[in-house]
Amino acid sequence: MRQSKLFTKTRNTAPKDAVSASHKYLIQGGFADMLMAGVYTYLPLGYRVIKNISNIIREEMDKTGAQEMLMPALQPKGIWDETGRWESLEEIMYQFKDRSGKDAGLGATHEEVIYDIVRRNINSYKDLPFAIYQIQNKFRNELRAKGGLMRGREFMMKDLYSFHISQEDLDEYYNEMINVYKRVYERCGLEAKVVEASGGVFTKKYSHEFQIIAEAGEDDIIYCTKCDFAQNTEIAKSKAGDACPKCGENLKQGKSIEAGNIFQFGDQYAKDMNGYASNKDGEKKPIFMASYGIGISRLVATIVEIYNDDKGIIWPESVAPFKAHLISLNKNEEAEVIYDKLVKAGVDVLYDDRDSSAGEKFSDADLLGIPYRLVISKKTGDQIEVKKRNEENSEILSIDEVMGLIQK
RNA sequence: CGGGGUGUAGCUCAGUUGGCUAGAGCGCUCGCUUUGGGAGCGAGAGGCCGAAGGUUCAAGUCCUUUCACCCCGACCA
Length: 408
What we know:
The structure is a single chain. By secondary structure, this protein is α+β, with helices and mostly antiparallel strands. Helix 2 packs antiparallel against helix 6 (167-187) and helix 2 crosses helix 8. The protein has helices spanning 21-28, 44-63, 77-83, 85-88, 111-121, 167-187, 268-273, 296-306, 333-344, 358-368, 399-407; strands at residues 32-36, 39-42, 67-68, 74-76, 95-97, 103-106, 130-139, 154-164, 193-197, 207-213, 219-224, 230-232, 251-266, 276-278, 284-286, 288-295, 308-309, 312-313, 324-328, 349-352, 372-376, 384-388, 394-397. The protein folds into two domains: 7-309, Bira Bifunctional Protein, Domain 2 (BirA Bifunctional Protein, domain 2, 2-Layer Sandwich), CATH 3.30.930.10; 322-407, Rossmann fold. 42% of the residues are buried. The chain binds one RNA strand through strand 8, strand 13, strand 16 and helix 10.
């Protein structure tokens, strides 16, 4: 990709009201653009990050045998009335009447839609267990959107639903999913604390949150610095300074970002929406359900909150919009040659071919935070100056050495 | 929804007790010169001063209403 053609350009000032690093840098760098409070366009750079994170999630979900599909965002009132959530979610769900006077809403979550399909299609224990997921925009009528991509009214989410013939079977999958989730965060460069929590407005049942310790967070948790023990202060039985019940280390209290949430609904939907299947003995049994969510657009912001410095973003390689940022100084012909080589070798490279000053190019490179900066100038001859975004020093390497480094 | 704040050029902002044709920096266009940390000179384009109503000889400035955005709170997969 040639930077001269990239939609959009970087800005040299951050949005005036942005407080958090992720809000500032994602807007300033041209990763996202606000349409209204809490509603953002993912520009080409930001959408590349979204796709990278989505693919990590897909790989991990697919490994568990889950199947991806896509459900509608526009939904009828009827199925929500069956669970009573049309009323209980009316503060968070966008609800309205269409032109024929029918009540409709925009999906804030998808348990009702998926369970409606399941009850009409699953009749036997032989079809259980299974899991379905989708990656889709959710709509939530937040009283106050904030922090850029951190809390939006329309935001991207991966939601997975698992179905089981028994609570035991659900427990097994649920516990496995905790580890799958940890692996997803780890692959995105994040260390998640697994926190027992209340389900909020969505359910009163058993649930776990995945929390990333960060100052920009909205949640407050008690956590252990040595092991993965953590509790939300809303329901915590421990306090800062107490010994960790798991390993004995002193507990700390801190701000954190809720990067995921999983719920057990048990047989509640079976009762509310009449979803039953026959077991081995021909007995009618409830179809158990659990839900598993990861806010993908929030994860983008979370990663930036963890990986940044006073100059910009420092993307982990696994999610970076490009692997390498090739910078040409002095209108260097050699850079064109090297760009061609990188593209032919299949390297994701952003090529700064703009006719602008060295200082501007370096500043933008720091802001965009692509892992490998490759500089071509009069000084470098037929070689390349390589600097990693997360390191201070650079080195001069041959094109072959650079290929080896980047493609490893 | 309560409290606080902000709306003036694409962006960041200035604009005095109301007073001539509305300003700067950055960005943009053209020309020349530059090129290792946000370059220089010259020329230029760009505004219904968020919207509506009112006061006044005169409104970016005062009053009323309303819309939008931000921050704190309440709320929150």
